Amino acid sequence: MQTLADQPIQGIRSAFLDFVGDPFYTDDASSVRYISDGLLVVENGVIVDFGSYENLRNHYTNIPITTYSNNLVMPGFIDTHIHYSQYEIIAAYGEQLLEWLNKYVFPTEKKFKDKSHAKKIAALFLDELLKQGTTTALVFATVHAESVDAFFEGASHRNLRMICGKVLMDRNAPSYLTDTPETAYEETKKLIQKWHNHNRLLYAITPRFAITSTNEQLKIAGKLLQEFPDIYLHTHLSENIQEVQWVAKLFPNSLGYLDVYDRAGLVGKKSVFAHGVQLTDAEFERLSEAKAAISFCPTSNLFLGSGLFRLSQAKSNQHPVKVGLGTDVGAGTSFSLLHTANEAYKVMQLQGKPLSAFKALFLATLGGAQALSIEDKLGNFEPGKEADFIVLDLHATPLMANRTSRFPAQSLEDLAEKVFGLMMLSDDRAVQAVYIAGKLAHSLATVL
Amino acid sequence: MQTLADQPIQGIRSAFLDFVGDPFYTDDASSVRYISDGLLVVENGVIVDFGSYENLRNHYTNIPITTYSNNLVMPGFIDTHIHYSQYEIIAAYGEQLLEWLNKYVFPTEKKFKDKSHAKKIAALFLDELLKQGTTTALVFATVHAESVDAFFEGASHRNLRMICGKVLMDRNAPSYLTDTPETAYEETKKLIQKWHNHNRLLYAITPRFAITSTNEQLKIAGKLLQEFPDIYLHTHLSENIQEVQWVAKLFPNSLGYLDVYDRAGLVGKKSVFAHGVQLTDAEFERLSEAKAAISFCPTSNLFLGSGLFRLSQAKSNQHPVKVGLGTDVGAGTSFSLLHTANEAYKVMQLQGKPLSAFKALFLATLGGAQALSIEDKLGNFEPGKEADFIVLDLHATPLMANRTSRFPAQSLEDLAEKVFGLMMLSDDRAVQAVYIAGKLAHSLATVL
User: Fold this and answer.
1) Contacts of residue A426 in chain B, CB cutoff 8 Å?
2) Is the ipTM of this complex over 0.85?
3) In the predicted model, is pLDDT for residue A362 greater than 50?
4) Which range of residues forms the domain containing residue B309?
């Protein structure tokens, strides 16, 4: 098994883009770091130095340097909400959330009781993520402990920093997919002890959503969070109008959807709620106060017709909420966070509030890391962080090459325009190479 | 120069999908034609026979047959609204319609006064269309006659059936892009005489929209339509709320946006109006009555934040309007009609009305041909029609291959599900080959 400590010192020379602040709250000059000819120095899988090639070259005269000319190196993308078990049912036709779950999702999740199936899909899923430049994700498994084992084994084999958890569901789902409050507790506890902080892996307590968990089970999830305070809480929240109405009926004493989770002790600084399309202003305020995060999943929200997430409200000055981007595959129809940024732009244009490429790419990197409380480990090129990064080709297709001539960019404004082209026009052909903990893990140029 | 008459008889054997009716108005069994092992016979660029391989094989024992196993052959896609001059500014950041025109479109259109620039972009544009499987398009040039010549020369060289016209603009645009009613008339007339029915080319009188043409110029366009009754009228209509408000101010005596065109004699059965996002019910009725067509451009409508086109209203039983799909590049951010169908699905999901793959693919083929009044020439595999067709690979990426196993499909229902995957997940890598008038014009497998 690979570890962070099996590599000597090495350098990557290229143009680099990362974020040192939040462009939603500061100007680009303060938040965007662009080095048109930079050097990233990696030792034992960790970034040890980063700056302009000119400034650093004399400090590193004897290390091997890989040069990517005419490319842009960015931190690996972070997907804050995705279901690995839905790999095979991506782009399933014709339904909105609740019917889509019954018709497509539940039958396919049944198969993950079989660990060999789970292992096969986990491998396809992880390879697809890497191909798209995503190096870390917060992942739904299924209700089966086997599905979590299979996923973490695949992620560990690839030395990835991944967060996952067993789904908790004890009602409103087929019997083959339900657990109980008691088995949920026991199995989750065992999985936490087995996987949390094993290599780069982290665990998330994962009730599917308030519809498929009794209040008793939600309280068990809260109890687990108290026992393991550095563990994540990952669930869905206020995605679809019918869902919100059903939750109101199921929990007549709650003040709203978020309040259901709140009363169970599930709303804290390591809680990540997918969607939030239907959230009220008061709920945004409560998420801000609790320092909880939202995963904004624009492709999925369009594909299922859920609606338009109010990103401007989430990123308000008064009540800021941590936000990352999520593909939400299989309701999201692309594994690419660049494509997800493209759809996010459209969701925001429909609200008359264009989303700049820098803001979108912040959400896909440092913003995602903050949403997952791993900004001490990932999200930008600060020395001390783990060296997961991607090499992008802004000329990957003839159309992109014509749209984005003259790279590297010579100013922030020029760069903004060029990376906007990348976000609107690219696909996996633009992800030329992916490094995990300093090691080449995917490359278009090389057969590994 | 190639002509339709320079090829001997040949056969294509594969699975085939085309439409023989409108799936918005009849069931799939009556509108969708699927032949899992079919033979398409082409002579001199024209389809001379089409049916199951089993039935036809004995009639064509001595012709060369090209077999595409595990592929799906469809009629070439028809893009009912696109701007070739906007190739370079595709995916320009941050504006809605009117500001976007001023900031990005007008400056780039200025360059098309230079015919050598126009020729270069026309070549890139036409190659990109073919790569994406689009074989016919209704195209905006610029105000310059040179831009029309350059485009038609490039299309003629490739033996394509293309429709284009000089833009008419005599106000509310930079002086370097305006003509006058008189020059509009003279230049358009010359271009019609030069290009209409030259090889496979057709002409469209092309006022940009009511904002940039005086009433006098619109009436000149109407006069041209009377003089040349088989010529197209191609313009924009009711895309954006601010645009509609401005038109109301500019034409205080009109009953609405469509009425402005109607009073100038521009609403007829060869009129194609792009967008129509803001149309009233009465305007839909008038378009139905006039047998005019709308180009539905979902990607563009999302990218510019224009809104959600009411396709269900357009395809109503009471007042049916002809509808085709348009990419509307450069406000559309993809040349692919498959990707445009993907975005159309999302636009309709936001309205709670899922769009089936068959309906979407109908719009991209026979529906587009009907919108452009060329259903006697193109749109499906009826003998006598021109042999523009594309070979699709439903397994073009690992994700698609996993999602869409077991092809050819064995039933219409199975096929619907598989082509929905194609429409949601594919890109140009799924367009394996493109034939124009029976000749291979683009292929992923072969260097031509």
Assistant:
1) none
2) yes
3) yes
4) 77-371
